[in-house]
Structure formats: structure tokens, C-alpha cells
Amino acid sequence: MDPISDMLTRIRNAQAVDQKTVLIPFLGLTSKVAEVLLKEGFIGEFKKVKRNEVKYIRISLKYNKDKSAFISGLKKVSKPGKRIYKKSREIKRVIDGYGIAIISTSQGLMTDKEARRQKMGGEVLCEIW
Predict the structure, then answer these.
(1) Which of 32, 53, 7 shows the shortest CA–CA distance to 110?
(2) In a shared domain, residues 48 and 78
(3) pTM of structure
(4) Residues whose CB falls within 8 Å of the CB of residue 13, separated by 6 or more in sequence, listed in order
(5) What is the pLDDT of residues 41-64, one digit of tens each?
(6) What's the whole-number mean pLDDT along residues 6-32?
(7) How confident is the model over 101-123, as pLDDT tens digits?
(8) Staple partner for 101: which of 27, 47, 90, 112, CB 3.0–4.6 Å?
(9) Which residues make beta-bridge pairs with 63?
(10) Do both 8 and 47 map to the same domain?
């Protein structure tokens, strides 16, 4: 299974039932995505934990004052059967700049804003708003 799709689905499902944290299987890619989400303020924090000799990432989810989920939408763009690559000038803003797209570039994972600023293209992994 695609680890990014799994990660986004776990976050979406955890927010649907108002969980404070969610466990995601630890991979280098999921850890990097969690770093970007933390840096952009979409999650509270994340830690690497071990449970029964299996490594996980525990992500603390953020909620608004009215108890609604801070992340209102998650969308996987590039899929295993159809990879989506964009040049820096082709990368569009997500919901007029309110959301972010996570781009896998030769310099690592970065947001769409950083990719446009550094004039770097890459694979568009997902969009979050």
C-alpha cells in the first residue's frame, strides 16, 4: 500500500472521531511529511515511538476552539499508478494559498510555496488545507 495515502487516511479517520493522537507506521517518507506538517502548523507535534518492536510516529492532532479539526481536507495527488510531476511554474496554489501542497524535489520534501520560491519542480505528493 502507498504509505502517504495510508498516513492521510489515518489522520482523516482520527479527526473524524476526535482523537487527540494518531499512530502511523514509521518510514523515512512519512517522517518527512510529518516534519513539513509540523513546520506549517497543521499538527501539534510528532514523536517516534516503538510498540511491540514496531516503529511508529505518534502525531498530535490540532483542533480549533470550537472543537472542529484544524485540518479540513487532505488529498493524495500523485498515486502509485499515476505519478504527477510539475515544473515550478506549473505548481498551483492550494485553495488560494490557505492550504499547502507537499512536493518531493531533488532537495527533499518541501511545500509548494518553497518549491516556487526556489524554482524547483518535482512530484506533487498531496494537498492539505
Answers:
(1) 32
(2) no
(3) 0.92
(4) 22
(5) 999 999 999 999 999 999 999 999
(6) 96
(7) 999 999 999 999 999 999 999 99
(8) 112
(9) 69
(10) yes
